[in-house]
UniProtKB/TrEMBL annotation:
GO molecular function terms noted in the UniProt entry: nucleic acid binding
A Pfam entry, by short name: mTERF
Descriptive protein name: Mitochodrial transcription termination factor-related
Single GO biological process annotation from the record: DNA-templated transcription termination
Gene3D superfamilies in the record: Transcription termination factor 3, mitochondrial (1.25.70.10)
Provenance organism: Cinnamomum micranthum f. kanehirae
C-alpha cells in the first residue's frame, strides 16, 4: 500500500502543469528552520538580516545596501517574495548571492504580472532549464522584462536580420544586455550594409549585435577616430566586419595605440587591417615594453631579434612564451639584465596617470 501510494503521488506531480511545478521545487523558508511546526520564525527585522538568511555575509550586505540604499526601506514581505522566486527557479547558494550582490537594483523593480508565462517563454527560447538559469544569473532583469513589449520585439528584430532564435539565445549568455538595448534604424542598417558582410558569415551575428546595442553617436565617433589615420569609412567598416569587437574599444585606446604604432614603431597605419590585435593589445603592458626590449636586444647584438614579421609574432605571443623566446634563452647574466630592463619598461606609467579623472561614457562602450 505504501509503495502504491508513492507511485500515485509521483504520477500526480508529473501531471501538474509546468507553471505549478515551478512552485513545488525546493525552496527555503523561515519556518523550515524551526523544529516545532506550531511556532513560526518571525520575519527578520530589516533587509540586512534577511540577506544574511539567504547566504550573504556582512561584506555582501554592505555592498548591496551601498549600491541600492532604497532596499533598506523596502517592504520585507515583497523582498522575501522576490528572493523566494529565485530559489524556486533553482537559483540558490553562491549564484543567489552573486545576483543579489552584483545586481541589487533588480530587487527594487517589480516582477510584475505574467511571470509564469514569461518563464515558460524564456525556457522555450533557451531550450533547457539549465540554460535559462545561466542566462538569469548573467542578467536577472530577464525576470522583469515585459514579454510583449521587450522580449518578443527583440527576437523579431534579430529574426528580421536573419539571426535565428537559437543563435540569439546563445548570444544572450555572453551579451546579456542585448535584450534591453538593441535597436536598429536606417543609419545603423547602412553601417551594417557597408561592412559588406554576408549573413552566412560567422561574424555576421556579432556585427549586427554590436551595432544594434551601440549608440549612434558612439559609432560615429569611433568610425571617425579610425578614419583620421588615413582610412575611408568603407575600410573602417571592412575592418569591423573582420573583427567586430574593434567597435567596443574606447576612442582613447585606439588613438593611443595607433599613435604609438605609427609614430614610434614606424609601422604603416593599414597594418592593423591584417593585424587587428595591435589595437586590442595593452600599450603599457605589451606594445611599448616589448618594442623597447626589441631595441635593447638589437643594441646588444643578441639573437634572435625582433624585426619585421618576427616583431609582430613577438607582440602576439603570450607572456611565458615571449620570455622564453627572447629573454630566458640567453645566458643567465644577460637574461637577468634583459628581464630587469623589461620589467622597468612595463613599470613606466602613462603621463599624468595618477591625476587622470575617469570619464564614464555610459553603455555600451
Amino acid at each position: 500500500m505504501a509503495l502504491s501510494g508513492i507511485h500515485a503521488f509521483r504520477f500526480l506531480l508529473s501531471s501538474l502543469p509546468q507553471t505549478l511545478t515551478l512552485t513545488l521545487t525546493l525552496t527555503r523558508s523561515f519556518s523550515s528552520t524551526n523544529t516545532n511546526p506550531l511556532i513560526q520564525t518571525p520575519l527578520p527585522k530589516d533587509a540586512a538580516q534577511l540577506f544574511r538568511f539567504y547566504g550573504c555575509d556582512d561584506a555582501d550586505v554592505s555592498k548591496i545596501l551601498l549600491r541600492q540604499p532604497s532596499l533598506s526601506r523596502a517592504n520585507l514581505n515583497l523582498l522575501q517574495h522576490k528572493l523566494d522566486v529565485l530559489q524556486r527557479l533553482g537559483i540558490a547558494g553562491t549564484d543567489l548571492v552573486k545576483i543579489v550582490t552584483c545586481r541589487p537594483r533588480f530587487l527594487s523593480g517589480r516582477l510584475g504580472d505574467g511571470l509564469h508565462d514569461r518563464l515558460l517563454f524564456l525556457e522555450s527560447l533557451f531550450g533547457t532549464r539549465e540554460m535559462l538559469l545561466k542566462a538569469i544569473v548573467r542578467n536577472p532583469s530577464l525576470l522583469n522584462y515585459d514579454l510583449d513589449e521587450r522580449i518578443k520585439p527583440c527576437l523579431d528584430l534579430y529574426e528580421g536580420m536573419g539571426i535565428s532564435r537559437e543563435t540569439l539565445a546563445r548570444m544572450l549568455l555572453s551579451r546579456p544586455m542585448i535584450m534591453p538595448r538593441s535597436s536598429l534604424n536606417d543609419e545603423k542598417l547602412d553601417y551594417i550594409n557597408r561592412t559588406g558582410i554576408s549573413k552566412e558569415s560567422k561574424m555576421y551575428k556579432y556585427v549586427v549585435s554590436v551595432i544594434a546595442i551601440s549608440r549612434l553617436d558612439t559609432i560615429r565617433k569611433k568610425v571617425a577616430n579610425i578614419e583620421k589615420f588615413g582610412f575611408t569609412v568603407d575600410e573602417v567598416m571592412g575592418l569591423f566586419s573582420r573583427t567586430p569587437h574593434v567597435l567596443t574599444l574606447s576612442v582613447d585606446k585606439v588613438q593611443r595605440n595607433m599613435t604609438y604604432i605609427i609614430g614610434i614603431m614606424k609601422l604603416p597605419a593599414h597594418i592593423v587591417v591584417d593585424y587587428p590585435f595591435l589595437l586590442y593589445s595593452n600599450l603599457e603592458a605589451v606594445l611599448r615594453p616589448r618594442f623597447m626590449l626589441g631595441r635593447k636586444i638589437q643594441e646588444m647584438g643578441l639573437e634572435p631579434q625582433m624585426n619585421g614579421p618576427s616583431l609582430l609574432r613577438a607582440l602576439r605571443m603570450n607572456e611565458p612564451r615571449f620570455l622564453r623566446a627572447f629573454v630566458t634563452c640567453h645566458a643567465e647574466g644577460v637574461a637577468k639584465e634583459l628581464m630587469e630592463f623589461y620589467n622597468k619598461a612595463k613599470g613606466i606609467k602613462r603621463l599624468a596617470q595618477d591625476s587622470k579623472v575617469g570619464v564614464r561614457m555610459g553603455f555600451p562602450f
